[in-house]
Amino acid sequence: MKKLFLILICLFFLTGCYNYKELDELGVVSSILIDFKDDKYKVKLEIYDEEEVQIFDGEGENITEAFKSAEAKSDNKFFYRHLNAVLVTDNVNIEHIIYYFFRNPETNDNFSLINTNDEEIYNDEEFNVGLAIRNDLGYGQDFSFFSDAKNFINKTSDLTLPIYKDNKLDGIKTLSNQNFKSEIKDAEENVLKILLENNNALLNTKCGNDYFILEINSVDTKIKVDNKIKIKINIKSGIQEFTCSEDITKIDDLKKLEKLASKSLEEDAKKLIDKLNNDSTDILGINTLIMNKYHKLDKYFNDYDYEIEADVSIYKKGLLLK
Amino acid sequence: MKKEFNILNYFNTRALFMGVGLSRILANTNEYSFLAIILGTIIGLVLLYLLRIEMKSSFFNTILNSVIIVMSLVILINMISTMYLTQMPKFLIGLPFTLLLLYLLNKDEKVLFRLTNILLFFNLVYYFLSLFPLLKYFSFSAFNYTNTNISNVFVSAIEFALFSITPTLFTRTSEYKDVPIYKMYIISSITMGVIFMLTYGILGPELAGIVRYPEYLILKEVSISSAIQNIENIVSYMWIIDVFMLIASCGNSIKHNLKNPKMINIIFIVLLFITSYMNQHYEYILVIYQFSPIILGSVLFLVWLCNKKLIFKH
Amino acid sequence: MDYLNKIQKDYENVTDLVVKKIKSIHIIYLETLADQDKINNYILKIIPKSLIPRDIKRLVPSPNVKDVTNYKDLNLYLETGFTIIINGKQVIAVETKSNLNRGIESPTTEATLYGPKDSLVENYQTNLGLIKRRIKSSHFKNTVCNVGRYTKTMCSILYIDNVAEVELVDKILKCLENINIDGVNDISELKPYLINDTKNVFPAVKTTERPDVIASALLEGKIAIIIDNSPYALILPAFLVDFINPISDNFLKSINVNFIKILRICCFLLAIVLPAFYVAVTTINQETIPTSLLINIQNQRANVPFPAVMESVITLIICEILRESDIRFPSSYGSAISILGALILGEAAVSAGIVSPIMIIVASMTFISSMIFTDLEVINGIRYWRFIFLFISAFFGLYGVGLSAILLFTNLCNYEVLGKPYFYPISPFDMTYLKESLIKIRNNKRSRLLSKNRIKGDL
């Protein structure tokens, strides 16, 4: 017992408080905006402050210096383990950012990496950008830093980042190697979601002048590499909105609608894939499949021809008979 | 005490994989790592069946066990310094750990054996607490083709066997030399294999190759619903328990052969200083990382050469 | 005549000694201890008017008559309420104890909703009777000895000879005989002589006032000690798990009880770890708390000038003071203290900015968790470890909490009670005893450690 107390007292006086940080001197960072301009990194940090947020900005020759200069302006220690989002502009070298956050164990790795070109996103002190993004994306792993970094480093597929604009998430930015390429928006984003087996997509199909919208309940996308690359999409969906003249109580008409939807999806997907191949971004991870099949990469994904086959089936049409 | 001895070897088998074995084997074998593990388990079983090391000289025994203690302590302290307490000097991280070990080692041997029961329970709780939330991140697409040389698999299998059986062989004191531990060895190999597969399945081939503590990195993903997140500091206690029990059993083996058991205090304090010196220079950690199988293998070979008591069972 | 003179000399200033001479018979008793009616019925009425026979023992109708062979015995009998009859060379002692006892009442410290409502009293015979009424077997034995130079308290070791280990009984008997003190007023004073465990903060001997607890412990193979003048009995060896679970569990449905039992283990750990966890999580490992909660706590702690460790120590010590004053004060004042304490802690301390509201929650959770245990010693032991955890975690955070948990378990594994491991059914692991202590499952075996007669079958 005496020994124990002796040890405790020794600990008390010898160790000091190295990692000790009181909560009230902690600045919990909600989101970070990183920009690269005139050979200088510019960062803006959004800190939780009761109901509101505080913004600190800093700049420096490298990322660490920029963070340090921002921290010097605040009397709090910044705490990065509750990060919600990191927003990067197109000018930034994404590789540096990813490796910076990976090397640094003082961050969590379930924040989202977001692309933005709007530098004035932090103009409202009562609006927490980080929290808004987190609530929009949810807590899933789809857009967490971890999976992004994994995709980036593993090179199994190219990276896509959500775009933040006008206080909301809008569209997806594609990257090829380390360069930002084109934006994918609205209808194209929908098709991309289907190709990536995301269930939150809608199918908008025209029938003449009218349209009908299918809500997708399950997607199954299969990609096969052969002489051509064959993409097979299987969709189960329910009718969300219907303005066409067809009578969906009849089996023939229902089949017709399904075919119509499949065909329009095939066309849209074809367009999207052409666009991606022009940008040479491999979002679907086709290079990996080629590598898996032939154990070498003689021809890249954009050297192949694509064949898309969609099979949309309607199995729900809501309360209405027609 | 036979049951407890088996449990102790459950920890001994797993502990050296933290920081060293796991990332090495994953980086070398990629998608064939499961083959390396299965082969390694079989080689380990054969070696366990054939080899009996009976340490006569207490000096020799102390040196051998100290090699393992220093290796695992350096890696553990480095891990805690990277993940838990980033600003604390490495010596101070090692200090309470060593004091705790000495507190345990100054007690009777049976206290160590009794402690295994409780720590096994906590170890398994942490193991399953991390296993189930992580299963949803596992993807088979990580097991895609990479340019892995198949000969790496055999090298890694031998490494696996070395990492898992050397502590067991060194820490086996004369009282327990005939206790069968094959079943426990297989069980702990299976739990280790699950961690290997999970790590590789979550990180994928290239990420698993570039991070120092892949087994810790995946724990960052553990979340129970959306409320409890970032509990890697709690769950990773699994590894600390493993290493703690490994060092405790090594220390017990040293103590067992010493004429004056109190000498263990001096030995451990010297070892603490050696580790904290090694921790000040990163090149030592790199040496441990790169040459640990060679160190373990050569130490085992040395023992085989010097020790005439190395007998074949029949 | 020799004895008579000696008594009169020894008891010179003892006012309650009565020496009565009827014919050639001397009747000696202490009137405070003896019952006048009994003396009248057993002795005075039977003394024949004519010739006094040489052997008077035959005439005495009392159920308990003893021959006295030496002065030491005589002294003991006299002091325990016997009446000494000296008839020529024959000296006998007749039991005429007066009933100085209160009636059997319901237990106060170990109250249960269901189950027997009787508790031990200060009378040794009554206590033994209460236990014997529950175990009707000739295998139920008791070995007696006296403890205390002046008090000469009767002390009895109870066991069932074909269940309990007899070596253990001998060991305890040896311990009791070697006790060299002036007097024993309560059975708790025997504890340090029975078990030499000055370093263990948790109790190793169970104190109980319920005869049913004693009976069930005896049936498990344990050993009980009762002494005269104490309404409590000791059960040993007792392990840590015995203190966590009260007897009342036996009277309820096992499915429901198991939930409570698991809850109790959690409470045991919670009562030790919670303040340490709070300090670790708010000062070193802030990433572990969910973000919204972190911001909440941060706002609450904004006005508190003290560091979190000091805040916890202050709150915990205030709580300890409150608890101590609550125990010491008579119960009629107790409620006033509680109200005062609750007001000070709950309202004033927070609004004065000394502690944060979340600390109040942590402290009260800690105390409520520790109040589950009926034994005061367990609560004290928990407190001891709570502060050790708190200090270590203040330096090393969650890493420190883990290390101190290993320290606690090492400490518990180290102790032994009469050669049995203190952390028994958990480590070394034994399913049979676990079924009777930590969880409740039907079990028809006795534990390996306590009894060699393992199957609960025929006698």
Summary tags:
heterotrimer, A: 322 residues, alpha/beta, 2 domains, 4-stranded mixed β-sheet, 8 helices, B: 314 residues, mainly alpha, Amino acid/polyamine transporter I, globular
**Helix-strand string of chain B:** HHHHHHHHHHHHH
* Total helical elements of chain B: 13
Radius of gyration of chain B: 19 Å
CATH superfamily of chain B: Amino acid/polyamine transporter I
Spatial order of strands in the largest sheet of chain C: 1-2-4-5-3
| Count of DSSP-assigned helices of chain C | 15
Explained architecture:
- The complex is a heterotrimer of chains A (322), B (314) and C (459).
- Chain A is of the alpha/beta class and 322 residues long.
- Chain A has two domains: 25-176; 185-316, Nutrient germinant receptor protein C, domain 3 (GMP Synthetase, Chain A, domain 3, 2-Layer Sandwich).
- Helix content of chain A is 31%, strand content 34%.
- Chain A is built from eight helices and 13 strands.
- Chain A has helices at 2-14, 63-73, 94-103, 129-137, 145-154, 186-195, 251-279, 286-294, and strands at residues 26-37, 40-49, 52-60, 77-79, 85-88, 112-115, 160-165, 168-176, 179-184, 202-207, 210-225, 229-242, 306-316.
- In chain A, helix 6 packs across helix 7 (251-279).
- The longest helix of chain A is centred in the C-terminal third of the chain and has 29 residues, at 251-279.
- Chain A is elongated, with a radius of gyration of 25 Å.
- Chain B has 314 residues and is mainly alpha-helical.
- Chain B has a single domain (2-306), classed as Amino acid/polyamine transporter I (Up-down Bundle), CATH 1.20.1740.10.
- Chain B has 13 helices and no strands.
- Chain C is an alpha+beta fold and 459 residues long.
- Chain C folds into three domains: 2-95, no CATH class; 124-238, no CATH class; 250-417, no CATH class.
- Chain C has 15 helices and twelve strands.
- The longest helix of chain C is centred in the last third of the chain and has 39 residues, at 376-414.
- The mean pLDDT of chain C is 85.
- Chains in contact: A-B, A-C, B-C.
- The A-C interface holds A 1, 4, 8, 11-12, 15, 17, 19-24, 26, 28, 48, 50, 79, 81-82, 84, 108 and C 199, 282-284, 286-287, 291, 294-295, 297-299, 301-302, 304, 307-308, 388, 391-392, 394-395, 397.
